[in-house]
Amino acid sequence: MPLTLPDRLPAIDLLKQENIFVIDTSRATTQDIRPLRIVVLNLMPLKITTETDLVRVLSNTPLQLELSFMKIKSHTSKNTPVAHMQAFYHDFEVLRHEKFDGMIITGAPVEHLDFEQVTYWDEMTAIFSWARTHVTSTLYICWAAQAGLYFHYGIPKYPLAEKMFGIFPQTTLQPQLPIFRGFDDIFQMPHSRHTEIHKEDIEQAARRLAEAGRTDEALTTIAESPESGVGIVMARSGREFFITGHAEYSPLTLDTEYRRDVAKGLSIQPPRHYYRDDDPKQQPLVSWRAHANLLFTNWLNYYVYQETPFDIDEIH
Known about the structure:
Elements: E1 3-5, H1 10-16, E2 22-24, H2 25-28, E3 36-41, H3 47-58, E4 65-71, H4 82-88, E5 89-91, H5 92-95, E6 100-105, H6 121-134, E7 135-141, H7 143-153, E8 158-172, E9 186-196, H8 199-211, E10 219-225, E11 229-235, E12 240-243, H9 253-263, H10 289-305
Parallel strand pairs: 1-2, 1-4, 3-4, 3-6, 4-5, 6-7, 7-12
Antiparallel strand pairs: 8-9, 8-10, 10-11, 11-12
């Protein structure tokens, strides 16, 4: 099945060149299928790049998806054309009365700030609360994962001495979970962040929930790395996933970030376990895409499609 995208979205032409099956809304309306409605709150600066990365990993499913894009009203993107934002993005206030089968909330370049210092924090927390009653399952990525864990469970973030930057092996702690079907015991995931969360805080929060009898909000770390720490946290039986890395990244994303920072004269080490022979003069060695595709496909199948009601208005 194809992925249904808004008419004229730049990702359509880019991904057709990669032989990925996507169709626009005009063609999709002629098909008698109830597609899964997925909304993406895209907080990344280069929105077209992030859209393309997400569409790429969402496209490997037999399910038909209808993708919408949400934006923060209280923040204006400086790196994406205004015409693009007006054509493809809707404010939360416009979408808040709708329901969605799945939601993805991306990272954001605001790690250096305390959560309450982020100018759009109030709107973010309103969206976090809204998602719990209007979305079947939500993926929180990188900064959004830390923000969601902080808002919902009081789990703090901690600054790192140096940027967690590279491709890091993750161990599946509960391989029997449907999210890990088809996974190896170890899988790779890109990371690019300046802060981290601690497993001990997650365990303490889980104990508080259990003591309070809130078993429906069970919280557990399901993947971790000896190098990059907590990898994936699951909550509410899969209605929420908090992913500290960027499984969706394309092969050259870390390379682009590295060369951008070098050009700015910043003190930064090359991304670890990324270039062949760890040499920035060589090409990246792509080691994460197969599991990235599995991760998003399993999420869509087992935690969205299998759990969402046929009548989308029944989501609560």
